[in-house]
Amino acid sequence: MPAVSHVPEDSSTSSDGEEQEEHPCLRWAGSNRMIPTLVFYAESIVTKDSSLRLIGERYHLAYKIVRTESRLVRTILTVHGFHEVHPNSNDFNLMWTGSHLKPYLLRTLLEFQKVNHFPRSYELTRKDRLYKNIQRMQQTHGFKHFNIIPQAFLLPAEYQELWNAHTKDKGPWIVKPVASSRGRGVYLVSHPSQITLDESILVSRYIHSPLLIDDFKFDVRLYVLVTSYDPLMVYLYEEGLTRFATVKYNRSTRNIKNQFMHLTNYSINKKSRDYVSCDDPEVEDYGNKWSMSAMLRYLKQEGVDTAALMSRIEDLIIKALISAEIHIAAATKMFVPHKGNCFELYGFDVLIDSNLKPWLLEVNLSPSLACDAPLDLKIKASLLTDMFTLVGFVCHNPIVRQGRQSRTGGDLAARPQTHKPRQQWPVPANNGEVKRSSSSGKERARDGQGLSTLRLTMEEIKVLRHAMEENERKGGFIRIFPMADSWEFYGHFLEHKTTLNHVLAVRLFTGKQGAKRPAALARARNGVRQSSPAAQCRHEVLQVQCQKHLQQYERKLLSLQARKHRQQQQVTLQTAQGKGSGSLHTVPAASSCGSES
Description:
- 36% of the residues lie in helices and 15% in strands.
- The chain is built from 21 helices and 18 strands.
- By secondary structure, the chain is α+β, with helices and mostly antiparallel strands.
- Strands 11, 12, 13, 14, 15, 16, 17 and 18 form an 8-stranded antiparallel sheet that branches. Strands 4-3-5-6 form a 4-stranded parallel sheet, covered by helices on one side. Strands 7-10-8-9 form a 4-stranded antiparallel sheet, with helices on both faces.
């Protein structure tokens, strides 16, 4: 990696170095914890704390926004000390773009630079490509394992197949342009003859028995972050949005043209005279837009097994990503020079039917970050700050582009001279995979004296360390792949054949029996009923894991004002106890924290 640029000389005193060592916006990465990375805080939007800008300004961190507009992204980066550069500039740490980059631009990326899309992500986000990829997996691995989207046909090519399916089981059908978003061009029909064939469209069987809340149809927008496709690293954010239609649901075909009844897109329903908004960020279960956690809490009160529901949703997300993994991983290997250059936040739209089966409706390339209501701001500010922290922006002056390349095999070779050597971060007691990196003497004797001697290649060591560091920074994200059982559940579905996925499955979860559980447990997750006591026991173990995730999915996020108030209390307490000498910095509350207990 390129060397970390030095802090300006006017801040190179010893006392400043000590202050930066403890700065709340700094965290340390790399084999010796010598690489400074930036930490982001959602409450910075309302606190306007100038001290949070210090690190970004000292390193002259820069971003550029290309072919899109996001006020929230710009605000968060600015309050953390980033400055915006021209879209044609090459001196940036982050390029935030609304579309895919051309290969020649990807090839020029330096190791510290990041972009918010992988090449060929349209394999997921175009409706036709998503359908074809999942269809391929159904044909290869069995329909029951990838029954995650409604029956669908691409028109005009599969028009006859649509007619045959309609003859066997009549509609209704929902028609969608293959490359549209926000409900544009979507309509329902009761018969194939009503479809207009003037463009490429996807026609899907309409799910006419959706789960209802107070007689209204709804879907869920989930935020999924992928930081790597080789190995596959997938995170689901703890909070999402539940979006309601504005007219009570009725299965009668007389209402088939009523978009306000059948479509849940916010961009459509906000035009309805019946749309109800909420101006209180603390109220999450009122109006036509709820938080996902509020929806789960409601369903739990109604007796729904929400742990099993979220387990099926996690399974759906992983399988959708696996269906496109081979295309995106191959393109990334071909065009992207460094593994950490790309990350991507997807918007998964999921509909739950009356049998509590989740269905994938579509995957959005650039999910909306507009904040039309206080609830939007609370969720999306937390989402973005946790995402920026997780992906790990190295504190590197982008003007120092070619400079001093690392001679140590992959890490940033230098750090600001004003920083003192830093000891290893403490190992969280509840973090099994981090414990692995500081294993017992017996394990060291078995595996060698450290991570570098575990019969792994340098690339595998670096990937393993990177996965562990991401887990330390994940905030409100929940890593759903890899998990302790992911290799048993999904290893045989992966099509991009490299060793890295298996290395993570084996090395991250040593001692948890994750990589060695019987295939019966995998079949339990995929919906195949097990009758033996052993299989039932394994299924119960899986439910424990789901329950652990559910606690995070169901908890309520603190509002930005509540975080601001809590941070002010911490500063006051610190000052009163006399711990503020030399620096009044205190680490703000994590942006993903739920209500205080």
